[in-house]
Design a protein that fits this description.
Length: 427
């Protein structure tokens, strides 16, 4: 019996139109251009059309295809169930529409088979990627990944690309920690992998968006936000405990960062108080010759540059001219949140019939600035002065990897009404 190196899972739900064409194209590529032993697993999760019948037909026809059926829907549920029982060395998945060019599959899995990396992702947001998709999806994708970097300290560039792979031993250590059964599963697994110290390899991909995609963007976005809140709360309360599987965990360098956090907050607060005083004085000076909104914009803009420079040097200890312009540009984006909050507060204040006093205007502006300051500190710490790691690395290059230790036995992680497999045979 040959050793199975790669199991490529294709999750599907009501994909009767594209399934056969995509699977045949994938199998042809694996047979003619892929140097590793591979199997295609069609994961039908809750289809109500002819998808399962087509999947079983493909499994009977093609030697290296199997079909698995689950009654309950959910991409995360399907991947967790199939990856947990797969005998392949590397577990991969891709979307059924094959939006990602298949030539990226070999560079995706090769570092995992060699032991160089533990998890690999396709990225549409790195240099070298070629992406064709609408501006709405592009904006949502970039906004979501920026939110992950800001709120969760993520270092990977693209959480949502449907093109990923993980080593089997690492998957069996992390899968019991995952809870999401839908689209957030990818993000959850990546965040856990980073905190476990795993090396994440990123592959720039050629991507053509499926114009017939049935993904509910609003529902998916809300689910992602709920997932982020659940993970953040779990990490904060200590209810999600992530083992260190390899090399330095994110929790290791962050222990030193956590000791520096109170000092950073104190310095940020001192600079913030000085900036607020300068902002209020400048606003009062300008308010006599222009409208409240205009005075607010100019006052924020003038103090923003000085605030960013002071926090760069004093709070986060960055000196020299290297990346100074980039830091200032990102700082202005961060201050855009303050502008939106203060302008909105002024607009709401002036919407009333009575003309507010200067004291009332100042009180409202200070309150709005306090809210903006909390958000701005997170942006400064994780995005403006933190920045992502270089593409292709989930940990620092200067860190020496430690051998992966044995993982605990893998337990049952999903409960399904039925799980039917078609196409398993001795190879």
């Amino acid at each position: 019996m040959r050793v199975l190196q790669v199991d490529v899972v294709v999750p599907v739900r009501n994909e009767e139109r594209d399934l056969a064409i995509s699977v045949r194209r994938l199998v042809t590529y694996l047979r003619e251009s892929f140097p590793f032993t591979a199997r295609v697993t069609i994961a039908d999760n809750g289809s109500t059309d002819a998808t399962w019948a087509i999947a079983t037909g493909l499994a009977r026809e093609l030697a290296d295809v199997r079909a698995v059926h689950m009654d309950l829907p959910g991409r995360g549920r399907a991947l967790r169930a199939i990856w947990s029982e797969s005998d392949a060395e590397v577990l991969a998945y891709m979307d059924v529409d094959l939006s990602t060019d298949l030539n990226a599959l070999m560079p995706l899995v090769a570092p995992l088979l060699s032991g160089h990396s533990d998890l690999a992702i396709g990225t549409r947001l790195a240099r070298g990627s070629r992406v064709i998709r609408g501006p709405k999806r592009e904006l949502i994708s970039r906004g979501y990944n920026m939110l992950l970097r800001t709120c969760m300290g993520a270092r990977f560039s693209d959480a949502q690309c449907g093109f990923k792979a993980i080593r089997r031993d690492q998957a069996r250590a992390l899968l019991p920690l995952t809870q999401d059964t839908g689209w957030f599963f990818d993000t959850e697994l990546l965040v856990l992998a980073e905190r476990a110290g795993l090396r994440i390899h990123e592959v720039p991909v050629d991507w053509i968006d499926d114009l017939d995609s049935r993904v509910d963007i609003i529902a998916t976005a809300l689910g992602d936000l709920r997932g982020m809140a659940r993970l953040g709360a779990g990490f904060a309360r200590g209810t999600i405990k992530v083992p260190q599987l390899r090399g330095p965990s994110l929790a290791v360098p962050r222990s030193a960062a956590s000791r520096a956090l109170p000092l950073q907050i104190a310095r940020f607060a001192v600079i913030g108080v000085a900036s607020t005083i300068a902002y209020v004085l400048l606003f009062l000076m300008l308010r006599g010759i222009m409208s409240a909104q205009a005075a607010n914009v100019i006052s924020l803009l003038v103090t923003a540059v000085a605030n960013t420079a002071a926090n760069r040097r004093v709070t986060f200890g960055i000196s020299g001219r290297s990346n100074a312009a980039r830091h200032q540009f990102k700082g202005l984006i961060a201050f855009g949140i303050g502008l939106a909050l203060t302008s909105g507060a002024l607009a709401a204040l002036h919407a009333g019939s009575a003309q507010p006093s200067r004291a009332t205007e100042i009180s409202v502006l200070i309150a709005a600035n306090l809210v903006a300051t909390v958000i701005r500190f997170g942006l400064f710490r994780h995005w403006v002065f933190g920045g992502p790691r270089p593409a292709g690395h989930g940990w620092r290059a200067e860190d020496q990897p430690a051998p992966a230790g044995p993982t605990e036995p893998f337990g049952k992680t999903v409960q399904l009404k039925a799980m039917t497999t078609q196409g398993e045979r001795t190879r």
